[in-house]
UniProtKB/TrEMBL annotation, chains A, B:
Subcellular location: Membrane
Keyword tRNA processing: no
InterPro entries to which the protein is assigned, alphabetical: SLC26A/SulP_dom, SLC26A/SulP_fam, STAS_dom, STAS_dom_sf
Domain STAS: from-to ranges: 451-571
Taxonomic source organism: Plastorhodobacter daqingensis
NCBIfam families associated with the record: sulP
CDD domains, A to Z: STAS_SulP_like_sulfate_transporter (cd07042)
Pfam families with a match to the protein in the record: STAS, Sulfate_transp
Topological relation to the membrane, as annotated: Multi-pass membrane protein
Protein name: SulP family inorganic anion transporter
Length: 590, 590
C-alpha cells in the first residue's frame, strides 16, 4: 500500500515546520510557474489557459503518488514542442480537434507510463543514452528558441524544424512589426541582465545568496507585470502588438478526451516518445535533488506518479506534463520539504485562474516568447559535443546524429534515429571485442597483455583474454581470431581462453565455442578455459559443452599455467604457491 | 587484386589431379542439382526452367570471386520461400511481372551484398543470432513442407503461413486426386527409405562408405527418372496427374530486370532479408567445410562473391541464390578441390537445359514436392528448442518468438521480430548486470563473491565487482546499486569498484560515475577503482573523471586492500608481497 501511495509515508509525520517551509516554496514556485505555464501552452499551439489547467490537477496527483520531495511537475518546454509536433499534423491549430488531440496525447502518455510502472519497465528509459538525450535536448531547445523569433518580430511564421522556420521567416521578413520587436528586445535584455548581473547587485546591497537566487528566478514575473501594465496604459494592442487576449476565468471543467481509435493509433508513437523523454527528464531531476538530501527515489513508482499526473492533466483540459528542471530546483532551494509543496502550488495556480485571468488579456505574446528563449537557452550545452568527441567517437556519432536529424527533420525522427543509432553503434562496438594475448608478469601471479607489459609466455600455450561478453554479435569474431592465432603458431598445443571479463555466454556464442573446440581438437590442440565467472559457469553446466571440452576449466590463469607449463611458472613465481592456492581454493571453486 | 579475385590464387597452381577431382564432384553435384533446381523454382512460384538458369551463371561467377573451395551456390529452399513471399503480393503468379519482380529481387540482393562487401559490413550478419536463425529455419522448413502437401494431393491450394495453408487445404479436401497421392506417397516412401536404409544395404553388398553416401544422395534423381518414365508410359497426365509440362529448351537469354523505382522500393526490405539470411546460411556452410581442411574463408569477400552471383542470376533469368548446405557437403565429399568444380557444374547444368528439357515435360509435380519435403525436413531441429530452453531463457524466448511468428504471420515479420527481440532481450539482460560484493580469499591475492566463497572483508571498505561493461542501459542501475549499499553500511569509508569485467565505459556511464563520485564525496566516502583494463583507462584519461575522482585507481584489488585496509591484508596474506607486487608492476602499470 505504502509503495503505491508514498503520501502515507511522509504524511504521517507531517508537522508545522514542514507546513511553513512547503507554503513558502509553493508561493515562490507559483509566481514562477504562471508565466511559464502560459508560455508553454502557446509553444504547444494551445490556448494559454490550458497551461494553467495543466499546472493544477497534475501537481495535486503527483503529491499523492510521487516519491520525490522536490519535483515540480507541469508543462515543460521539450514536451510542449513534442506535443505541437505530434498534434500539428492532425488538426488545425485553434480548433477543438487540436485541443482534443492534445488531451488524448496526455491521456495515452499517462496510460503508457502507468503500464510501464506496473510492469516495472522503467529500464526501457535506459535505452535513451545520455548522448542521445543531450543531443536531442540541445536540438529541441534550438528549435524552440528559433520558433520564438516570429512572435518576437510580430510575425506569425511557424515550423517544426529549423529549415521550415527559416523559410517561413524569410517569407515574412518585410512585415516585421517594429514596436513589438523593440518591446521584445527590451524584455530579452532585461531577462539576460537579471540572469547574469541581478544576483551580484543583490549581493552587494546585502541580500543573502538564497533569497537573491529566488528573486533572480522571479524576474520573468516582473517582465510580465511591467509589459502587461505598459500594454494596458499605452494601448499597445491598438498599436498592433499581439496580446494574449481573452482567457476564460475559472477552474477547468473535467472532460474526457475524444475516444477515437483512429486518432489514438496516430498518436501512439508520439505519446510513447513524450512519455519516455519526459520520464527521463523528470527522473534525472528527481534523483539529482534527492541525492543532495540523501533521499531515495523509486523509479517504478515515479512512472506511476507521472502516469497518473498525465491522466489528471488530460481530463482537466491540459496537455502532457512532466517534472521540470528549473522549477524543481527553485522548489528545492526555496525549502520544500514534502510533495505537499506541490499541492499548495496547485492551489496557487487555481487561485490564479480565478483572479488573474482578466489581467492576462493585456499580456504581450512577445514577452512570453522572450521568457521562453531565456529559459531554453540554458538547456543548450555546446561543450557536450566537444567533450563527447574527445571521450568516445561512437557516443559522439550518436549525439551529433540525434542533434542534426532533430534540427532538420523534427523531434520524432530525431529521437527515433538517435535511439537506433546508439543501439547499432553499441552492437558494432561489441562485435569486435578487444582480445589480448596475455603472459605472466615475472614474480607475480598476474597475466597481462603481451603488447602492453613485459611478460613471459610459452610458445606451446596460447593464452587469450577476451575483453567482452560472448554473445551473438561477436560469436563468429572469436572463432576467426583463434583460427588466425592457431595458423600463426605451429608449436601450439594448448589454447587457454581467459574469461574474467566474460560476463555472459549466450546460445550463439556457446555454439561457436563448441565449433571451436571440435576444430582445435581435430588439429591436436586442447582448449581450456580459466577464470570463468560463477554465473557463466552455472550456465555452462546446463549444456553439453563441459563434457565435450577437450581441456579443463581452471579457477585462475595461474593454475592453468602451473599445469600446462610448469617449467615456466616455476621459473617466474614461487612454485609452491601453485599448490597452496589450488588446495585453498579447491573447495570453493567447483 | 588477389583479394577480390581469389581465382588468381588457386588458379595458378591448378593441376591435373585437381582437374580430375573437380570434374568427378561436378558430375555428382549436377545430377543432384537438376531436380533440386526445378523444385525450388516451383517453390518460388516460378517456371521450372528459371531454376536451371539460376544454377548456371551464379556458379561460374562464384568460381571467380568465391573464397570457399567447396561451396555450391544456386537456388535454395529458404531463399525460394522468401522470394515467393516477397513477390507473391506484387504480381500474379505465372505473369511476366512476377518473373520480372523475382529477377529484380535477385538484382537488388546482389547490389546490397556487394555494397556490404565493399563497406566491410559483414558484421551486420551477426545481428542474426543463432537462436533466431534456428527458429526461423525450422519455421521456414515447416511452411515449405506444408506447402508441398497440395501438389502431393493433386490440389492447387497456396499460402504463405501455416494458417493460410491449412484453411486453403481444408477448402479443397474433397477434391484430392488419388492417383497423384498414390504416386507421391510411393516417391516419399522411397526417398525416406533411401535416406535411412539404402546406405546400410550398399555397405552390406560391399560398396565403400564414400560412394555409398553419394549414391544415397542421388536417390531423388532415380525417383525423378522413374516417375517421368511412368508418366510417359502410363499416360499419367491423361489420368489427371499434374506434370511439369513444356520447358523451353536452350540457354537463358541475358536480360535486365525491370527498372521500376516503385517496384524496387517495395522489394527493398525483402531483398535485404534474403541477402542477410542467405549470406548467413552460406558463410556457415563455407566455414564448416573450410575448417575440415584447415582452409580460410574471407567473410567480406564472400559478400562480394554472393553479390556478384546474384547479379548473374538476375540478368540470366534466375532468382535469388546462395550457398546450399546439402549440395555443398556433397561437393566436398565428392572430392571437389577448387571452385572450378562449381564452374564444371554450371557447364553440366547448361547441357541439361540443352538436352534434358524435352524429357521434363512428363515429370510429375508431385515427385518434385516429395523431394522438397524430404530435403527440408532435415532442416528442422526439434531438439534445439529444448536445448536452448535449458541453457538460456532469453535465447529461448527469441527462438520461440521467431519460430511462432514466422509460422503464423510469415517469413518477413518473423525474422524482423526475431532480430528486434534478440536485441531488446540482450539490452534487458545487460541493463541489470551481476554486481557482487567481494572479499579476500584467505592466504591468496584473490577476491571473490562473498555469497559464493569464504572470504574476509573490512566493514569500512566496500568492494563491488561489476560483471558487465558500463554503458547506457545499465548506467543508472549501478548508481542505484551503490546508493543501496551505502545506505546499508554506516561504517563505510571507501567504495572500490573492481573492474576486471568492465570492457567499456561509454559516455552515459561516465556521467553516472561522475555523479556517483560527487555524491559519495559529499557523504564523506571515497571512491576508488581497481583492475581497470588498459583500453578503458586510456579512454578515462581523455575525460576529467580521473582529476575529479576522490580516491585512486589501483592496478589490482589486492593493492587497493593493502592501502585501504592494511591490517586485513597483513592478516590474511604474506604482507611483503604487497610491496613486491606494487614495485614489480609500477613501471608497467600507469
Amino acid at each position: 500500500m505504502r509503495r503505491f501511495f508514498p503520501i502515507l509515508d511522509w504524511g504521517r509525520s507531517y508537522g508545522r515546520e514542514a507546513l511553513v517551509n512547503d507554503l513558502v516554496a509553493a508561493v515562490i514556485v507559483t509566481i514562477m510557474l504562471i508565466p511559464q505555464s502560459l508560455a508553454y501552452a502557446l509553444l504547444a499551439g494551445l490556448p494559454p489557459e490550458t497551461g494553467l489547467y495543466a499546472s493544477i490537477a497534475p501537481l495535486l496527483i503527483y503529491a499523492i503518488f510521487g516519491t520525490s520531495r522536490s519535483l515540480a511537475v507541469g508543462p515543460v518546454a521539450v514536451a510542449s514542442l513534442m506535443t505541437a509536433a505530434a498534434v500539428g499534423g492532425l488538426a488545425q491549430q485553434g480548433s477543438p480537434e487540436y485541443l482534443g488531440a492534445a488531451m488524448a496525447l496526455a491521456f495515452l502518455s499517462g496510460l503508457l507510463l502507468l503500464a510501464m510502472g506496473f510492469l516495472r519497465l522503467g529500464f526501457l528509459a535506459a535505452f535513451l543514452s545520455h548522448p542521445v538525450i543531450s543531443g536531442f535536448i540541445t536540438a529541441a531547445a534550438l528549435i524552440i528558441a528559433a520558433g520564438q523569433l516570429p512572435p518576437l518580430l510580430g510575425l506569425s511564421a511557424r515550423g517544426e524544424t529549423l529549415p521550415e522556420l527559416a523559410l517561413a521567416l524569410l517569407g515574412q521578413i518585410d512585415r516585421v512589426h517594429l514596436p513589438t520587436l523593440a518591446m521584445g528586445l527590451l524584455v530579452l535584455a532585461f531577462l539576460f541582465w537579471s540572469r547574469s548581473r541581478l544576483g551580484g547587485l543583490l549581493a552587494r546591497i546585502g541580500v543573502p545568496a538564497g533569497p537573491a537566487r529566488l528573486i533572480t528566478r522571479a524576474a520573468p514575473v516582473l517582465a510580465v507585470a511591467a509589459t502587461t501594465a505598459a500594454a494596458f496604459g499605452l494601448d499597445l494592442g491598438g498599436a498592433g502588438v499581439a496580446l494574449v487576449g481573452e482567457v476564460p476565468r475559472g477552474l477547468p471543467r473535467p472532460a474526457l478526451p475524444p475516444l477515437d481509435p483512429g486518432l489514438w493509433m496516430q498518436i501512439l508513437v508520439p505519446a510513447l516518445m513524450i512519455s519516455v523523454v519526459g520520464y527521463v527528464e523528470s527522473i534525472s531531476v528527481a534523483q539529482t535533488l534527492a541525492a543532495r538530501r540523501r533521499q531515495r527515489i523509486d523509479p517504478d513508482q515515479e512512472l506511476i506518479a507521472l502516469g497518473a499526473s498525465n491522466l489528471g492533466a488530460s481530463v482537466s483540459g491540459g496537455f502532457p506534463v512532466t517534472g521540470g528542471f528549473a522549477r524543481s530546483v527553485v522548489n528545492h532551494e526555496a525549502g520544500a520539504e514534502t510533495p505537499a509543496a506541490g499541492a499548495y502550488t496547485a492551489v496557487g495556480m487555481a487561485l490564479a485562474t480565478l483572479v488573474l485571468t482578466p489581467f492576462l488579456y493585456y499580456l504581450p505574446k512577445a514577452t512570453l516568447a522572450a521568457t521562453i528563449i531565456v529559459a531554453v537557452l540554458s538547456l543548450i550545452d555546446p561543450g557536450a559535443l566537444r567533450r563527447t568527441w574527445r571521450y568516445s567517437r561512437t557516443d559522439f556519432t550518436a549525439m551529433a546524429l540525434t542533434l542534426g536529424v532533430t534540427l532538420v527533420a523534427g523531434v520524432e525522427i530525431g529521437i527515433i534515429l538517435g535511439v537506433l543509432a546508439s543501439l547499432v553503434l553499441h552492437l558494432w562496438r561489441t562485435s569486435r571485442p578487444h582480445v589480448a594475448v596475455v603472459g605472466q608478469v615475472q614474480g607475480t601471479e598476474h597475466f597481462r597483455n603481451v603488447l602492453r607489459h613485459e611478460v613471459v609466455t610459452d610458445p606451446a600455450v596460447l593464452s587469450l583474454r577476451v575483453d567482452e561478453s560472448l554473445y551473438f554479435p561477436n560469436a563468429r569474431f572469436l572463432e576467426d581470431c583463434v583460427q588466425d592465432q592457431v595458423a600463426r603458431n605451429p608449436a601450439l598445443r594448448h589454447v587457454v581462453l581467459m574469461c574474467p571479463a566474460v560476463n555472459d555466454i549466450d546460445a550463439s556464442a556457446l555454439e561457436s565455442l563448441e565449433a571451436m573446440n571440435a576444430r582445435l581438437r581435430a588439429g591436436g590442440i586442447t582448449l581450456h578455459l580459466s577464470e570463468v565467472k560463477g554465473p557463466v559457469m552455472d550456465r555452462l553446466r546446463r549444456s553439453h559443452f563441459l563434457d565435450d571440452l577437450s581441456g579443463e576449466v581452471f579457477l585462475t590463469q595461474f593454475d592453468a599455467m602451473c599445469r600446462l607449463s610448469p617449467g615456466l611458472t616455476r621459473a617466474t613465481a614461487a612454485a609452491p604457491r601453485c599448490e597452496t592456492d589450488r588446495q585453498a581454493l579447491a573447495g570453493a571453486a567447483r
